[in-house]
């Protein structure tokens, strides 16, 4: 099946995509000929378009087998089962972030920590998944406040894995404030990769991520220095939460991350989940405002690349891997069928299991429709829950209203939790939703660059998509053009 749309370019170039994700940037007449199946061998680009699968011949059984192989590659995550397992070990935290999605609990609050029994049951659920590659991620609140429980989960998982022999990876999202030498050495010895939040310069970060010391930014940088000294320069990742104030200076935000020694930045708009909805009026913005900010930031990053500096925008890297290669990025928000429950499970501090982190955030505001069941239930029972059946109605992008005929659908995802949260129905029409508006805008920005074909931009895009250095890309102009 072929789909087309008009790109927002000066020459109104048409984008035509196939079900396998191949694309062609052509004039309107050529697009019409492709879609009608009337492209003649006399056409100037016939051979190229045939090689890309945009022409059908009766004798093309071999091409159909190739297309089937590409589809299996793109959807290979379906064979894995849940591979990302998030442990919310505590909801307690000493920050009061303006945009907090889960209504953190005070440091001395009772009843907001995961029990050891529930943690042990969650480890059992992890290994009931057939996935060969497993990631256990610790979240909160501030998970470092229950580092004793982190140690227990790691010990239980590693002991079980001596039998299972899976590829086992650990990550933890933390402010870094509560990680001392002993905790960091444990992280190093057990391969726990850390991620933290840095919203921008000190004034912005401290205003948005309020801490009793009024020096949250400074303490985060101290934690970053401690962690890098033990884990190495790549042992900690960071990302910002973008508020209205942050959108004013995209170049400044990129430069803050550069000055701190990071070589990538993940630019995402505010999430419409949980308690963050209450502050969106003060902190939020329109999707058009976000996309204008994003385009300015991306242009600056591409200019840095042209000057020889390695720096990457993660959102673009994810989408470009889908566009320029037959491989999926692994990013759970952009899977079809969706990753909710099938690729991700969240074990909440209260013993309930959710299909995504966003679903448990919604639950904190009283929306318990997403709960799959107690952590003591076998994985098969959780997968057969009413919540999973409900989310399944909106889990396949290729059949959703507004997605089925969209040229971007081979690269996009379904995210039924988002649409159930914002529109009340996992299968709600996508056009006009925040999820759709965001990705339509991002795809248009990236495909405009692809249509322009600037060699240095193509070199950057190809290196990001292939996860290689720019110096390794000999001739990026030939990739899937």
Give the N-terminus to C-terminus distance in angstroms.
19 Å
In helices, the fraction of residues equals 40-55%
- For this structure, what is the CATH class of the domain at 81-287 and 326-357? Alpha Beta
Please count the helical segments: 18
What does it look like?
The protein is an alpha/beta fold. The chain has an eight-stranded mixed sheet. Strands 1-2-3 form a three-stranded antiparallel sheet. Among the domains are: 1-74, no CATH class; 81-287 and 326-357, Aldolase class I (TIM Barrel, Alpha-Beta Barrel). It has helices at residues 28-36, 46-51, 61-74, 116-128, 147-164, 181-189, 202-208, 216-231, 250-259, 280-283, 287-306, 314-324, 357-364, 379-383, 386-392, 416-423, 434-452, 455-466; strands at residues 2-6, 14-18, 23-26, 84-88, 96-97, 133-139, 167-173, 192-197, 209-210, 236-239, 264-265, 312-313, 344-347, 352-354, 373-374. The model has no long low-confidence stretch (mean pLDDT 91). Helix 11 (287-306) runs parallel beside helix 17 (434-452).
What is the strand and helix layout of this fold?
Layout: E1 2-6, E2 14-18, E3 23-26, H1 28-36, H2 46-51, H3 61-74, E4 84-88, E5 96-97, H4 116-128, E6 133-139, H5 147-164, E7 167-173, H6 181-189, E8 192-197, H7 202-208, E9 209-210, H8 216-231, E10 236-239, H9 250-259, E11 264-265, H10 280-283, H11 287-306, E12 312-313, H12 314-324, E13 344-347, E14 352-354, H13 357-364, E15 373-374, H14 379-383, H15 386-392, H16 416-423, H17 434-452, H18 455-466
Parallel strand pairs: 4-6, 4-13, 6-7, 7-8, 8-10, 11-12
Antiparallel strand pairs: 1-2, 2-3, 5-9, 13-14, 14-15
Helix pairs in contact: 4-5, 6-8, 9-11, 11-17, 12-18
